[in-house]
Design goal:
It comes from Streptomyces maoxianensis. With 238 residues, the protein is of the alpha/beta class. The protein has 7 helices and 13 strands.
């Protein structure tokens, strides 16, 4: 059975929460949300899912508990939450920008704003999802630091960037200087394609593996239970 690029992306996002235990999964975006739900249904059953406001919910959206704001902040600042955010720009050390493109005094484009990115990145693990990998997103230097990268996080106890997932592959920071490394390619993508779409020199090993395929059960869950309407295919097109 063939697997689409979007389904590899769901699997790659789900893997960000593997072995996390009882932490609050905070996926921002469609594919990350599908990934978190898949992780909870399979290899990370202890994950806590939220409605995005004040409730803990089950896999079907049924309310299972109340999450008061002070309890939420305790989880955030104590490393008990794992967020998967987007990125308007991201650099080799994982610094992320969601605020503006261009000079702060006169930006070329207004984005979301800094929002909670500094607190998220300094106080709990944060992964990233980029649906369209390009040199405009993967840049040598972000125009403004919102999410804090490894070169700026000295002394931050819970700072960690487990992975960056794009429509081309999976990236991590498992290098001596904590610069970004190509961890896996989605099937059908070539190393040179990733290199050309990245605005800095990635660490690339000699034998880059492919992103793992979903099992038959995982594929069934994605297609029949988690996303029966096929919304994933609208976000990622090979």
């Amino acid at each position: 059975m063939s697997v689409s690029r979007s389904e590899y992306c769901v699997i790659a996002c789900a893997e960000a929460w593997r072995d996390n235990g009882e932490v609050l999964a905070s996926p921002m975006g469609l594919i990350p949300s599908f990934g978190a739900r898949l992780a909870k249904r399979t290899f990370s059953p202890d994950l806590l899912l939220t409605d995005g406001e004040a409730m803990l919910v089950g896999l079907d959206g049924t309310v299972e508990g109340w999450l008061p704001y002070r309890r939420h902040l305790t989880m955030v600042t104590g490393g008990r939450r794992h967020v998967m955010m987007g990125a308007g720009q991201i650099d080799r050390f994982g610094n992320q920008n969601i605020s503006c493109v261009g000079d702060w005094e006169r930006p070329k484009r207004q984005l979301l704003g800094v929002r909670g990115a500094p607190v998220n990145t300094l106080n709990n693990p944060v992964s990233y999802w980029v649906p369209k990998h390009s040199a405009r997103v993967f840049v040598e230097r972000v125009d403004m630091v919102c999410g804090v990268g490894y070169d700026r996080a000295a002394g931050a106890r819970y700072h960690r960037i487990p992975r960056v997932v794009s429509d081309l592959g999976v990236f991590d920071f498992a290098t001596p200087d904590r610069s970004m490394r190509l961890a896996s390619l989605h099937p059908g993508v070539a190393v040179e394609q990733v290199r050309e779409a990245t605005g800095f020199n990635l660490v690339i090993g000699g034998d880059v593996p492919y992103t793992r395929e979903p099992s038959a059960d995982e594929l069934r869950l994605i297609r029949a239970v988690i996303d029966p309407e096929g919304l994933r295919e609208r976000e990622v097109k090979a």
